[in-house]
């Protein structure tokens, strides 16, 4: 992904004014853009469009954003796709549900186009820098950031982006304990408001896929990767 022109963005919202606003600003910045009015259409469109980023509303007809995100994350080709919720739903349970199904970011409307474009640009710059990071191997576990893949013995699989980044960060710092706040700051960044409970949800999901033997809970403190 060397430039903006190579980045594809799928915008999903049932409000045609928001679709037009976001598409106008994204195209102006040089991104290839497609839009969908509901979650069912979004899943079908994503299969062929293979977006690098999906901007996703929650409240939509036919299929809401949380279920749409869950279905997208079950598609192997969407493993490296960044999914950001853009929604008017500010309740804690909505945010927890969104991160629980694999969202990378959660932004509450109203949308500020210039700030959003800057955020997207920063996201792709960060992604580009990560491509040359070496593989981490610990016992039977191999973590390859160049392809965002994980292997345990001969079993290769992918993780949603934030789950992978959380695992990779902990594995880069074996036996060092990180608090939830440390992990939020290093994985989600300081400009994103994310609940501390989100870290617990992601840790649980990573453990379900790689087993309980790699990430330890230090009661009252946080988590660490056991080399």
Structural notes for this entry:
- By secondary structure, the chain is α/β, with parallel strands linked by helices.
- It has two domains: 4-129, Response regulator (Rossmann fold, 3-Layer(aba) Sandwich), CATH 3.40.50; 133-225, Orthogonal Bundle (Arc Repressor Mutant, subunit A).
- Helices cover 41% and strands 21% of the residues.
- The chain is built from eight helices and eleven strands.
- Strands 2-1-3-4-5 form a five-stranded parallel beta sheet, with helices on both faces.
- Helix 4 (92-100) links the parallel strand 4 and strand 5 (105-108).
- Helix 6 (161-172) crosses helix 7.
- The longest helix has 17 residues, at 113-129.
Concise description?
The protein is built from eight helices and eleven strands.
Write the layout of secondary structure elements.
Layout: E1 8-12, H1 16-28, E2 32-36, H2 39-49, E3 53-56, H3 65-73, E4 82-87, H4 92-100, E5 105-108, H5 113-129, E6 136-138, E7 141-144, E8 149-152, E9 155-158, H6 161-172, H7 180-188, H8 197-210, E10 215-218, E11 222-225
Parallel strand pairs: 1-2, 1-3, 3-4, 4-5
Antiparallel strand pairs: 6-7, 7-8, 8-9, 10-11
């Amino acid at each position: 992904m060397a430039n903006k022109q190579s980045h594809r963005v799928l915008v999903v919202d049932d409000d045609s004014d928001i679709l037009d606003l976001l598409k106008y600003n994204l195209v102006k910045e040089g991104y290839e853009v497609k839009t969908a009015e509901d979650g069912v259409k979004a899943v079908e469109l994503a299969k062929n469009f293979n977006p690098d980023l999906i901007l996703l509303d929650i409240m939509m007809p036919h299929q809401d954003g949380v279920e749409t995100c869950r279905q997208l994350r079950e598609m192997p080709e969407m493993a490296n796709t960044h999914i950001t919720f853009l929604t008017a739903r500010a309740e804690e349970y909505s945010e927890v549900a969104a991160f629980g199904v694999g969202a990378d970011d959660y932004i509450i409307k109203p949308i500020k186009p210039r700030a959003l474009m800057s955020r997207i640009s920063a996201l792709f710059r960060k992604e580009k820098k990560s491509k040359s990071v070496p593989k981490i191997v610990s016992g039977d576990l191999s973590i390859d950031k160049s392809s965002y893949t994980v292997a345990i013995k001969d079993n290769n699989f992918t993780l949603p982006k934030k789950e992978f980044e959380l695992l990779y960060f902990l594995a880069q710092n074996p036996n060092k304990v990180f608090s939830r706040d440390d992990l939020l700051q290093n994985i989600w960044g300081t400009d994103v408001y994310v609940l501390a409970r989100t870290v617990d949800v992601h840790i649980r999901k990573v453990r379900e896929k790689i087993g309980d033997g790699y990430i330890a809970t230090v009661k009252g403190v946080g988590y660490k990767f056991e080399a």
